[in-house]
Design goal:
This protein folds into two domains: 2-77, MoaB/Mog-like domain (Molybdenum Cofactor Biosythetic Enzyme, Chain A, 3-Layer(aba) Sandwich); 82-145, Alpha-Beta Plaits (2-Layer Sandwich). The two termini are 37 Å apart. The protein has a three-stranded antiparallel β-sheet. The chain has helices spanning 2-11, 18-22, 59-77, 95-101, 103-107, and strands at 31-33, 42-47, 50-54, 82-91, 114-120, 123-132, 136-138, 143-145. The protein has 146 residues and is an alpha+beta fold.
């Protein structure tokens, strides 16, 4: 309720409605996910190894809660592998010509590295993928740390 009162004090000239006051009520088993930009809190429930998340529908409020609350909690709670990609851009040769030229190299790739041929007009992207320990990525730009 203190958060809602603070938002109204700073940004809203009308009195707090009963509907806004009701938004301060959370189920007893919910953990609050702070909404810095609105009155509807997000909620985190954990039951029998499963996480349930409830978020407000306003896109920028939901995105902020996901970025600042949900993703960090998921990274703390679960050890999840990350998928890593490296891409090689080729130009001037088709997919089958490239496949012939790199056949020995492709066959020598470690078993955990997969190669995908991603053709488009005039070029073929060769995407190498593998799984590894999770990285923590923040923000829309995806700045990552190990």
């Amino acid at each position: 309720m203190a958060h809602i009162e603070e938002l109204f004090k700073k940004y809203v000239s009308t009195p707090i409605s009963e509907k806004n006051r009701e938004q301060a009520n959370l189920p007893s088993k919910a953990t609050l996910l702070e909404n810095k930009f609105g009155t509807a809190a997000g909620m985190w429930f954990f039951d029998k190894g499963t996480v349930f998340i409830s978020l407000p529908g306003v896109p920028f409020e939901m995105e902020s809660i996901i970025e600042n609350e949900v993703l960090p909690r998921l990274q703390e709670q679960f050890v999840l592998p990350s998928i890593f990609h490296k891409t090689i851009l080729t130009y001037g040769l088709g997919e089958s010509a490239i496949a012939e030229r790199i056949l020995d190299w492709e066959n020598a790739l470690p078993e955990d590295i997969k190669l995908a041929y991603l053709p488009s007009l005039g070029r073929v992207r060769l995407r190498l993928s593998t799984k590894g320990p999770g990285f923590k990525c923040f923000g829309k730009q995806g700045q990552c740390t190990n």
